[in-house]
Amino acid sequence: AQRVTQPEKLLSVFKGAPVELKCNYSYSGSPELFWYVQYSRQRLQLLLRHISRESIKGFTADLNKGETSFHLKKPFAQEEDSAMYYCAFSGRKYGNKLVFGAGTILRVKS
Amino acid sequence: NAGVTQTPKFQVLKTGQSMTLQCAQDMNHEYMSWYRQDPGMGLRLIHYSVGAGITDQGEVPNGYNVSRSTTEDFPLRLLSAAPSQTSVYFCASSYRATKLVGNTIYFGEGSWLTVV
What's the whole-number mean pLDDT along residues B82-93? Predict the structure, then answer.
């Protein structure tokens, strides 16, 4: 069963428009949620994690346990935000293993 | 620190051949793992290790072997390559093996493997 769902394979927005990359998870416990980003031909890197409650490169994500969601948001998209974004989670019964969603390609058009 | 280093970056194999993808980290990380990345499937865990001498299977271990004789190295072996193993492979490591909170997972640059 899919434990992390990213419903959009591709999200295309214009520069300056708001962005929301959706992520839903399935886990009966307290998950740890992450967003990873992969720019073209580069390695994956951590963008942010829910426990830090931080904003990185203008992106934020709030864990909504009621809706089991961890959507990634940015109020004004920039062209340099174009990349593949992966939502991932880990939970106690998964040890240190990260479970990834299928990923969403974000394309920011000028 | 070089971080997580993977070799080779690109490889073409014939069906039935074997090969080893190398992964090394110089950060004294306990935890190392291998993922494969396929379109529409995200990253799927192949094998992982929580320390030298300890390995375990992930989500898609069939057709792959690993060993962890040292803290630094975690090679991934393809025993008899099949076209279904055409993928991009990522090695990753993390300092603590017991929990992710507060510990970032670092990824290598990836290895593009094509099996014909």
Answer: 96
